[in-house]
Design a protein that fits this description.
single chain, 284 residues, alpha+beta, three-stranded antiparallel beta sheet, extended, disordered N terminus, disordered C terminus
């Protein structure tokens, strides 16, 4: 196919100037990541682009990649690794003036949980004092007592007392902990099977954590799960009422809890930044 145009210049005759010559070819098909890009029969070939027109900048990127990786490795902070034993044994009690309606109170010495038999229904709560990222190790020793039934242990990890006191865990996005562009306020509840999230506009996400442990299939908006969404929304509303949370805007909680925001508009997580957490005062 030959595409031409005509132009008239002062003092010149009409002339035809070729703009582009392209070969009519069949639709191009992907050849896979391990095959070289196709050149024959393409517009690149028709207009004279070199075969490595796109490959050259890619080679330059590859040449600089090692420097980028070295720079990133040099900027990676060293992880602080140290054993952190629990600091106290606690129990949780209902308290209308505490965050989400629960508080932790001392329940004895930590050592009392280390060397004791566990009977059916037994349990204890260990408080590590602050938030850590890492692994938990524990050891079990068998007593010289015949056991003729399965032994099942349940471990619950939580950040606040309500998460270990109730089977349903309540989650709150209450303040600008992320950038303003990605700071959707939300409330969520997680049961033994489902995770449900609501934002101010209404239901947002619902996942079946047994059938979909990686939470890839959002059930909100699927006709087959309308009743389940309604049930979980009612369950979340009940949990919010119990926690005396009326789901206000992030700005409301910034004022209420006296959060100090960094220049970028969010709570600072830089080393040495002041630890900030919600504080709820009991109503008179």
């Amino acid at each position: 196919m030959k595409v031409t145009t005509k132009a008239k210049c002062r003092g010149l005759r009409w002339a035809a100037f070729p703009l582009i010559v392209a070969t009519v070819a069949s639709p191009l098909c992907a050849q896979g990541p391990n095959l070289p890009p196709r050149q024959e029969g393409t517009i690149k070939a028709a207009i004279g682009l070199p075969a490595d027109f796109f490959a050259r900048p890619l080679r330059e990127v590859e040449a600089r990649r090692a420097d980028w990786l070295r720079t990133a490795a040099a900027a990676t902070p060293a992880l602080k690794r140290a054993p952190r034993p629990p600091v106290r044994l606690v129990k949780v009690e209902k308290d209308a003036g505490s965050f989400q309606g629960w508080k932790a109170v001392p329940a004895g010495e930590v050592a009392s949980a280390y060397d004791r038999p566990l009977v059916p229904g037994d349990g204890f709560i260990l408080d590590f004092g602050e938030h850590f990222t890492g692994y938990v190790t524990l050891g079990l020793r068998a007593f010289a007592i015949p056991i003729d039934a399965p032994v099942r242990l349940s471990l619950i990890f939580g950040e606040v007392p309500a998460e270990v006191a109730e089977h349903d865990a309540l989650y709150m996005g209450v303040a600008p902990f992320t950038s303003k562009e990605d700071n959707t306020p939300y409330r969520a509840i997680r049961t033994s099977r489902y995770t449900y999230v609501r934002r101010p506009a209404g239901p947002w996400m619902l996942f079946d954590d047994q059938a979909d442990p990686h939470q890839l299939d959002n059930l909100v908006g699927q006709p087959a799960h309308v009743a389940l969404v309604r049930e979980m929304d009612q369950r979340l509303s009940a949990a919010l009422r119990a926690a005396r949370d009326d789901f206000q805007s992030p700005e409301y909680y910034v004022r209420k809890f006296s959060y100090e925001l960094a220049p970028h508009g969010s709570v600072s997580y830089q080393p040495g930044a002041r630890v900030q957490s919600p504080r709820i005062v009991a109503s008179p």
